[in-house]
Amino acid sequence: MKKIIIYIRSASPIGKAAFLLLTAIIILSIFGSQLSRYPHDLSSGKSLEAPSKDHKLGTDDLGIDLWAQICNGARISMIISLGVATLACGIGSFIGIISGYKGGIIDYILMRFTDMVIVLPQLPTMIVLGAFFGPSIKNIIIVLSLFSWTRIARITRAKLLTIMEQDYIKIAKGYGASFKYIYLNHIQSQILPIIVLCFIKTTGKAIVAEASLSFLGLGDPTSKSWGLILNRAMDFNGIYFTPYWKWWVASPLIAIVLLVVSISLIGRELENKYDFKM
Amino acid sequence: MSKNIFKISVGYVITFLFIITINFFIPRFMPGDPFTYLSSDESGMNVTYSDEEMQKYKEYYGLNKPLGIQFVNYIRNVLKGNLGYSIILNDEVSKIIISRITWTLGIVIISIIISCFFGTLLGAVSAYNRNGLIDKIIYSVFMIISEVPAFIIALIFLFYFAAYLDIFPLSGGFKPFVEYESSFENITDIIHHGVLPAVSLSFINIGNFYILSRNSMIDILQKDYIITANAKGLNKSRIILRHALRNAILPIVTRIFLSLGTAIGGAVLIENVFKYPGLGTLMREAVFFRDYPLIQGIFLIMAVMVIIMNLTADIVYKKLDPRLK
């Protein structure tokens, strides 16, 4: 915790602003149901009310409060993106570390496999998998992480290859140090900042990917994320000819942009700090 | 050299087989089978097959054979160009795809031209004024733009230019039910509909082109001959365009092919925003109606296009830059 505070203090003004925004959205996602007066899944007013004191962001076609939906959507985005980032970083760093440490044929096979997954067109494949496995939060997390680990694996492998060339590793190996010993004493401290950075970047990417999937109607219909709100709004007949888009489309749109941009700014800030480009 | 190309190609052929395998096994790993799916139709039509009928259909579609033989048959069909039969559109999948693919390729190619041109130009300007005010402004604008997902930008364009200002049409690729008086009118109509999708699609790649061009320009602007050109008192645009940009263009050319690959994937979303009649919109319809043969067919075509683009990028990259040998 102390480290984080020191880090924020040393950040640039833009980084600080991004951090503030992200904290606000995280608070929204945790305390969303306390912060909104109305439920996010039941109608609580007339349909398509304009923003007012009562309904801060207005209501959608079923009369459900949009502010409550945005709060709930923040939670879903957070759950999905953190889930994806955890899974992807786990798989990716595992494959990267094994590949870089072992080298030889194992490295070759793992890297060819990684190349193959990288070449696959992401969005169409996600659509196919999403369509066949059916929409649920769990499936979306799995499908998204299937595509997010590749970059992490490559980066950790590249880093590990440079570490493995160091003399102290060679000497340690010469003394008969086991993988576990070398990993804990020499590798972990060097690889951890990179994985943290990857984690943050993957979170941002996962939010975009989830929003895209649910915008196409492949999101979990029982848990309304921001993309799904957009999807509903765009499917509404005459959304272009009525003023409803001013709150119905704009609020999830702004929410997505703010979250994605603030995460990417924080990622950039970290990149500058560790002097490391992805 | 040709040995090198062969080596690269082998990797891509394996990827292609990998994709076909995915395509083949996904529906077969699903719980249940297609006839149970069809039996309990979601749209209210209740169709149930008896056991004998199921047996008959399974035999008809070759689903009672062992997986290995099914797989071989599937690959044979795909290589013949036979992608199956669409359930919703009652036509061969390959025919449907051919009728839609030009729309997608059209906006993809135009978007690449836009993003390549403006990205490179702004990158060059930015590099020339390195660390100046102009550079900082352009750089930070691009940093933010490249993080915002393109379909969000497309939505903003849609609501601002099409719905609010009413300059461009809201959706579709052409005016429905219109008899054109001349082919010129036809073409202008299609262009009019294609502007917003192509421009918003170009935002997927413009950031990459910008960064690439900026970095390679910064490298080149430090070379001696640029200093000479400056000392000779040549004007700015001549230095940027004739002396520097020409040499900085190499990495950009190779990037074009890679960008085509990403743009094809990105087009799926953009087309859906504008209801543009390309493959992406078709894919969404197919997903909506659970038309599995169509989904798989589109996926396969898109994957093949992306693979070919990546392969070309690899080869061109090695050809253009002899240092990479």
From TrEMBL, chain A:
Record keywords: Cell membrane, Membrane, Transmembrane, Transmembrane helix, Transport
Pfam families, per the entry: BPD_transp_1
Listed GO CC annotations: plasma membrane
Cytoplasm keyword on record: no
InterPro entries assigned: BP-dependent_transpt_permease, MetI-like, MetI-like_sf
Family (UniProt): Belongs to the binding-protein-dependent transport system permease family.
Transmembrane segments: 76-101, 247-267
Protein name stated in the entry: Peptide/nickel transport system permease protein
The keyword Membrane appears for this protein: yes
Membrane-protein topology: Multi-pass membrane protein
Organism, as annotated: Paramaledivibacter caminithermalis (strain DSM 15212 / CIP 107654 / DViRD3) (Clostridium caminithermale)
UniProt main location, coarse: membrane
UniProtKB/TrEMBL annotation, chain B:
Signal peptide: none
Biological process, per Gene Ontology: transmembrane transport
Keywords in alphabetical order: Membrane, Transmembrane, Transmembrane helix, Transport
Pfam entry (one): BPD_transp_1
Presence of keyword Ribonucleoprotein: no
Transmembrane segments: 12-30, 101-125, 137-162, 190-212, 248-274, 294-317
PANTHER family the UniProt entry points to: OLIGOPEPTIDE TRANSPORT SYSTEM PERMEASE PROTEIN (PTHR43376:SF1)
This protein's name: Peptide/nickel transport system permease protein
Species annotation: Paramaledivibacter caminithermalis (strain DSM 15212 / CIP 107654 / DViRD3)
